[in-house]
């Protein structure tokens, strides 16, 4: 099941915008129908794709006939000639009035986005969305890579925008060293990537839809390549690479273009499927972290083993990007969705929470954080905290510990992630400090009186008492910490006893003084 709100949010990334305010976004969508200009009747369905319709008023009329909740129609394209008429604002106003009166949502599709791509996204959301659970994905890109390779007569790889391999043809005999390194490493090697940047290959992919021939480079182990950008409207999704000794022409070139369009549809559906699966995962993880009596069944749904866990809380920042860094970290944390990842993650506010199967040793959690950081750009800074080991029913406590460790790591920029096992004493003192600060601060008492005396007479009684307590009454250790003679500490302790009632022989009093000093900072 997919709601109208979800459909609008996802399609917003592909050049689709609401024509006007939508009455209710919570309505559920269960079916998709496509307008056929030659059909005598309009089919009935929740989502109507007004293919071939340019007038939004006509699209609304069709939606009413189809009993549709939402209709998608191509936005009027920009005029190609100065004398060509533009769309009248009155047309959209009339469409909005009719849609509002009839309770139909109208979504305008960017004129650069093909209907084939829109159909793939909408069908993937509405029809596959209600079936999608953990581990289910769209059609096989490897089979498509094989089909392209057979048609063009060359080895094929499909890569995403970051030059990571997402699929490749099975026929890789006589592959050059650069291609083998790319497939084995699952991404283009850094020397070859620099070569492509120097030759302007990536710049061409961003700005042009035309396939480009990349000349051989024997010193890089590179034979000739033909590359075509994979696009969704104006957005570059990835690229298709074919090994060839000379530029493709005629039928083979057309096959590469057609193959790139087919890959675009697959990548779009893959993205939608991944988004839906991430949403399912995120909601289940939030339930675990907030506490639920159904914790064990939820772990089963997420594919987590019946073991002990640790919660990792992670924040990412970049100087010039307010939200992009944490979104990128969340994307990396959920890459490889399904049963291959050790943990399950959610993005809550500006923090990525991950539930990791982990025992008494926090090393696997540290390794997971380090691997994620390696995949992030160099300018992104990361702070992370690792909660203590816990059972599935104790995950809310594990989340609190992870948050407290994260807060501690934020105060130590550049250091290693903080784990609860190593930092529990600091976190306990912070909890006591917070509890003391949240209540009514005492206006009288030993610490308050000594602090007031220090301020008036320029004495150092509070630091001395702190050092004495931390040294557990050892005058030598306390004096070394303060950088004074032991007799000075002995004198100050005697004077404090004359000024206030300390009762240092009482263990409860000593503990209260430690808490009060921690609260005082």
TrEMBL record:
Gene3D superfamilies: PucR C-terminal helix-turn-helix domain (1.10.10.2840). InterPro entries: CdaR-like_regulators, PucR_C-HTH_dom, PucR_C-HTH_sf. Pfam families: HTH_30 (PF13556). Residues 75-94 are annotated as: Disordered. It comes from the Bacteria. Residues 462-519 form the PucR C-terminal helix-turn-helix domain. This is PucR C-terminal helix-turn-helix domain-containing protein.
């Amino acid at each position: 099941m997919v709601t109208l709100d979800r459909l609008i949010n996802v399609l917003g990334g592909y050049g689709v915008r609401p024509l006007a305010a939508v009455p209710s976004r919570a309505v559920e969508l269960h079916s998709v129908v496509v307008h056929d200009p030659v059909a005598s009747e309009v089919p009935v369905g929740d989502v109507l794709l007004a293919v071939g319709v340019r007038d939004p008023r006509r699209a609304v009329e069709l939606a009413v006939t189809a009993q549709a909740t939402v209709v998608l129609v191509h936005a009027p394209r920009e005029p190609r000639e100065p004398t060509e008429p533009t769309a009248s604002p009155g047309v959209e106003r009339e469409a909005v009035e009719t849609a509002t009166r009839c309770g139909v949502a109208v979504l305008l599709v960017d004129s650069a986005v093909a209907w084939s791509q829109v159909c793939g996204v909408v069908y993937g959301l509405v029809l596959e969305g209600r079936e999608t659970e953990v581990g289910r994905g769209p059609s096989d890109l490897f089979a498509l890579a094989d089909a392209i390779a057979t048609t063009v007569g060359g080895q094929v790889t499909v890569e995403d925008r970051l030059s990571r391999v997402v699929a490749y043809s099975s026929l890789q005999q006589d592959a050059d060293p650069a291609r083998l390194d790319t497939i084995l490493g699952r991404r283009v090697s850094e020397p070859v990537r620099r070569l492509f940047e120097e030759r302007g290959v990536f710049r061409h992919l961003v700005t042009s839809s035309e396939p480009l021939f990349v000349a051989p480079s024997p010193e890089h182990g590179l034979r000739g390549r033909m590359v075509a950008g994979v696009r969704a409207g104006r957005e570059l999704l990835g690229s298709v690479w074919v090994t060839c000794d000379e530029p493709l022409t005629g039928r083979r070139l057309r096959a590469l273009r057609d193959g790139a369009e087919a890959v675009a549809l697959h990548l779009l559906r893959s993205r939608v499927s991944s988004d839906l699966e991430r949403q399912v995962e995120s909601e289940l993880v939030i339930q675990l972290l907030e506490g639920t009596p159904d914790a064990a069944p939820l772990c089963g749904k997420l594919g987590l083993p019946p073991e002990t866990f640790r919660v990792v809380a992670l924040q990412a920042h970049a100087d010039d990007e307010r939200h992009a860094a944490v979104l990128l970290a969340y994307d990396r944390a959920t890459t490889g969705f399904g049963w291959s990842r050790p943990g399950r993650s959610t993005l809550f506010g500006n923090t990525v929470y991950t539930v990791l199967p982990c025992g008494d040793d926090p090393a696997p959690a540290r390794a997971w954080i380090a691997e994620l950081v390696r995949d992030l750009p160099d300018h992104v800074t990361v702070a992370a905290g690792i909660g203590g080991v816990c059972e599935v029913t104790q995950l809310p406590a594990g989340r609190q510990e992870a948050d407290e460790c994260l807060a501690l790591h934020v105060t130590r920029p550049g250091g290693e992630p903080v784990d609860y096992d190593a930092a529990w004493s600091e976190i306990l003192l912070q909890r006591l400090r917070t509890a003391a600060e949240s209540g009514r601060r005492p206006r009288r008492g030993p610490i308050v009186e000594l602090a007031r005396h220090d301020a008036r007479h320029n004495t150092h009684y509070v630091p001395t008492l702190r050092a004495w307590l931390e040294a557990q009454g050892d005058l030598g250790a306390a004096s070394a910490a303060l950088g004074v003679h032991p007799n000075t500490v002995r004198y100050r302790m005697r004077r404090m006893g004359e000024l206030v009632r300390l009762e240092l022989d009482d263990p409860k009093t000593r503990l209260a003084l430690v808490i009060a000093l921690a609260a005082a900072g």
